Fold this sequence. Notes:
Keywords: NAD
Number of domains: 1
Largest sheet: 8 strands, mixed
CATH architecture: 3-Layer(aba) Sandwich
CATH superfamily: NAD(P)-binding Rossmann-like Domain
Number of helices: 12
Protein name: NAD-dependent epimerase
Pfam families: Epimerase
InterPro entries: Epimerase_deHydtase, NAD(P)-bd_dom_sf
Domain NAD-dependent epimerase/dehydratase: 3-268
CATH class: Alpha Beta
Helix content: 40-55%
Amino acid sequence: MKVLVTGAAGFIGFYVSKVLLNKGHDVVGLDNINGYYDVNLKYARLHELGINKEAASNYNNVCKSTYSSHFTFVKMNLEDRSELPKLFETETFDVVCNLAAQAGVRYSLENPETYVDSNMVGFLNILECCRNYGVKHLVYASSSSVYGLNKKIPFSTDDAVDHPISLYAATKKSNELMAYTYSHLFKFPTTGLRFFTVYGPWGRPDMAMFLFTDAILKNQSIKVFNHGNMERDFTYIDDIVEGVVRIIEKPTTERVQNNELYKLYNIGNNNSVKLLDFIKEIETNLKMEAKKDMLPMQPGDVERTWANVDALIKDYGYRPNTSIKEGVKRFIDWFKMYYT
Length: 340
């Protein structure tokens, strides 16, 4: 297949692109390489895919990979209404995997316009291009943050998600509603994936795993919100990507025949881990004790997440299973190699 992966310089998009290439697909990667976090890490990921930094820095420049003849990269904004349709017209994609978004719950409190531009206007442009250029399947990233203050545990895609508590979560819920509308009106399959606290090598510097490791190694204190009374369904990157690629590769013919065009899945480890236990695992691997700055709950945060993945098991025969012990060790090994 020919697959468009947006957010290809990002954490998950980089891995998805790499796995799809290894499985023989043609991949076009798209990213605007914004400055939300260190762009050097984004260019380093692209380098792993054979993309030259200087060439990738130029807007709307199609870059050929030295790693694989099946990969090209283009720097572009999703909200670019003139250039994005041209890309779709030129490339004729079978599947679009939309992983590009302005990420981060806390950042959305200070920069709301960025989230509307990227996560809503950009997503609308993706939907329009999919329906106008014959894309067979749109797979897109949602988030566990849409569950907001839901009390029922574990979180199920059958639960109501009408009370998001951050703008980031609200934009992701909006994406799900927009996808439903387009599937209903224009009869093409869309699949939303609610990711649960993704971590691992090449991860985002604004995520807890990265922040904690960096601070502990520098002998600085770490910020522990809600005084440590938090739990997360930490999901290792390889498990996330395995789920995404299975969904991309599975034909949608049966779904179309059964008029099951709109689908949602949780992708999580199906296990809630105490934040302090997570920190302990990092300390064990670093052989250092963290200095903990115990703080109240941050606006937009939730106390607990936990994914019900029954639908993923039923439809794709798959459930994530990498343990925290194994996943944290892999991240620490990468972090030491990359930064020291």
